[in-house]
């Protein structure tokens, strides 16, 4: 069984002080665990459940509700490309097609070398830069195929 | 022109913020009686910038004064309404404006703990906020005995994890309690039964960022910047087919046309305007002949739309309205939390119909069917997401019916795409 590292546990203990109710820290705790393991599967759910004194089913309900938690091993970098309105108006569809072709994956899949996972996202709150994608939380806007080539090249 | 929020942009470090006069509002507030602040905010005609436009002072006055329970402030930084990116600018460019506003609101309502619920995708912005909060603690502006008074306030940043519905205030509270973000049935309202069952104020980031100026300059001053019952200025997030997409702060009552042509540079290329969604994707679209409308809550409501979050999405003639319908309906179907049957089924059904129209498989009568489904969803659900999904569909179907019918008849897009 996988263990949550002492460093992560320390961060979590710190977080728990912020709330009068332990369960409140859940979303933040899951972010920390995901950062450490890359994803949260059943084992992850159980580990977090026992840490916070919750039932595994309570964990499952939450993890499956929120789109930012990965359920399976994902690539080292997660690409979230926006498919909402402003981005679509500015050409998100050809951008998504280009990314799929370039990475040889479909939505939700990881490249063969395990480097990138491609996901589509709803409005990322960066419509002034449409079309937009996020890689590991960093925004990249005004995308063109050439720009995508450059950006992906730079990420190791 | 007097601006309230954007002049602070770039003053990220606390020294720069204080140097420009920052935290004077909070200092002044803490030496005012809480009721006096609430009255001042009522006079300011400040209305909630999260979308619903509810008067802020009145919302605060619903919180019971004699409750023995803790009270909480939930700062809504979920910013998920498509087209909206204003709160990101406030938090990234002037995080102390938000902290100062939170101090004022908390003192006025008697709150000692505030959580900033920020959408998970704004991870980098959350770090900026955390840094700013640390700076404020170090100066004694947060924590115990703020400005040497008896008042204490703690602020914590809490990241969401990718669910639009968590921007709805009761879903936000559920999510902050570590649960799925499913809206609660009201009443009871958060003012009496919110976070952990305690009295809770939920306010949007931009709402709070206006408070320092209101306290410094007075409610009447703020009210006079705007028009009618819409006090102050507003941040407008402009995107889509304009030359200069971006964030613009303008007095309430400025015309939509001025915003688009004088500020956002007008329509890109040599294209013609086709429509404007004035307040985020759930606000009904306006046609080119309707864009003289003043940007304030009453005027937009009169024009059959909404000021919403102030997210202006501009469409030129290259936009295919079937595609627009598809994107909007898919979004709400994806984000419905599924608790209410009309919402869960209605959004999914509308999305299927819009998609088949785009793919050239639309059927005669689909436009009427879309409108029927949308109408039957409204006013029947736990939260307003169902209405938010229905309203734009009805407006697009009514105003662009011919184009949609042609798309269905010809089995392809009638709009020449670039
Ligand atoms: C589906 C839905 C999503 C919402 N999303 C947000 C949001 O992202 N940010 C926000 O401030 N308010 C959002 N709201 C409005 C909140 O419910 C609430 O009215 C607001 O946070 C109150 O703050 P205010 O009075 O300062 O505007 C949303 C409402 C609904 C129904
Ligand atoms: S209206 Fe939709 S989103 Fe709101 S509570 Fe009902 S099902 Fe959930
Ligand atoms: S629509 Fe793509 S970031 Fe907003």
Structure description:
The complex is a heterodimer of chains A (156) and B (418). Chain A has 156 residues and is an alpha+beta fold. Chain A is 46% helix and 12% strand. In chain A, strands 2-1-3-4 form a four-stranded mixed β-sheet, covered by helices on one side. In chain A, α1 (6-16) runs antiparallel to α2 (26-37). By secondary structure, chain B is of the alpha/beta class. Chain B has three domains: 6-225, Rossmann fold; 233-316, Ubiquitin-like (UB roll); 321-417, de novo design (two linked rop proteins). Chain B has 18 helices and eight strands. The longest helix of chain B has 18 residues, at 341-358. The radius of gyration of chain B is 22 Å and the shape is globular. The chains are: A alpha+beta (156), B alpha/beta (418). The site of flavin mononucleotide has 24 residues of chain B, from β4 and α17.
Please provide a brief summary of the model.
Chain A is α+β, with helices and mostly antiparallel strands and 156 residues long. Chain A has helices spanning 6-16, 26-37, 42-52, 56-65, 85-89, 92-103, 145-154, and strands at residues 77-82, 116-121, 133-135, 138-140. Chain A has two domains: 6-65, Orthogonal Bundle (Arc Repressor Mutant, subunit A); 77-155, Glutaredoxin, CATH 3.40.30.10.
Features:
heterodimer; A: 156 residues; alpha+beta; Arc Repressor Mutant, subunit A; Glutaredoxin; 2 domains; four-stranded mixed β-sheet; 7 helices; 46% helix; 12% strand; B: 418 residues; alpha/beta; Rossmann fold; Ubiquitin-like (UB roll); de novo design (two linked rop proteins); 3 domains; four-stranded parallel β-sheet; 18 helices; binds flavin mononucleotide; binds iron/sulfur cluster; binds FE2/S2 (inorganic) cluster
